Amino acid sequence: MQRVVVADGLPRILEILEQDGGVIVEDLVDIQTIDEMRDAIIQKAESVTPGADSDSEIWKFFHGNNTVRFTQLGKLSAAFFDILENDTFHAVTETLLNPVCPSYWLNTAQAMLIGPGEPAQLLHRDCSNWNYVVRPLWPNAPEVTVSIILALDEVTEALGATRVIPGSHTWADYAREGTPEESVPAELPPGGALLYTGKVIHGGGKNTTNDQWRIAMHMSFTAGWLTPEECSPLEYTWDDVRDRSPKTQRLLGFRSYDPMPTHPGGRLWLRDFEPL
Ligand SMILES: O=C(O)CCC(=O)C(=O)O
Ligand SMILES: [Fe+2]
To answer: Which distant-in-sequence residues (6+ apart) come within 8 Å of 195 by Cβ?
Structure first.
């Protein structure tokens, strides 16, 4: 994977994303914010059982039996709200999603802690959540989601760094799944992130250690007219976000979606016909 620092600038990040579908930004989030988020996530993780609480074999397989995942990160630490508004991630997301929507919202933000011995996750594209849009239009489908995997501690290949198949976002055949041999690990320093489009094939790596966890989180945005993975407005209360910025309120579902901001009036996500 190609690597940049924030100071390399948006055009360079976008250029690599266009080529590879993913890019490593080594200093996406400052270390103090990372330390706060990591401590809060590790504390919470102690009370979370690894694996998916689900009857679905597919979902359990995708989640991993020795992987700890949980959402509602803003309930754990105010550091989450800094990460949620990260300037570089938003600059990229605005560029990629604005052709299909005037505003986007949080898809999900979740802890993804891969435990010792966990096999590699199934390779996949995050945009497959919205296959009804993507598949018929592939390979010219619009972007519908943009994600980061953010390292809260050092992430090495041995710990299960995310595997990516660079260039798979432009493959002609949507059904081509890719192989582990085609993938490369996105190793990250703390505060570094793999920033990737929903179209690129990737998956959590195998944790080959005996006793160490991969401490990372995922965060992604999706078009304002799509249903996200995480039901943020049911997880957070108005009291949780009342004093937050309008941007954070919108990202978490506490603002209406206007599909036609240049001709205001076409508002969605209303209460009693009034915008939130
Ligand atoms: O844990 C990882 O590195 C990737 C996880 C992922 O891609 C997903 O669950 O969609
Ligand atoms: Fe994914």
So the answer is: 13, 17, 22, 23, 24, 25, 28, 88, 89, 92, 146, 147, 148
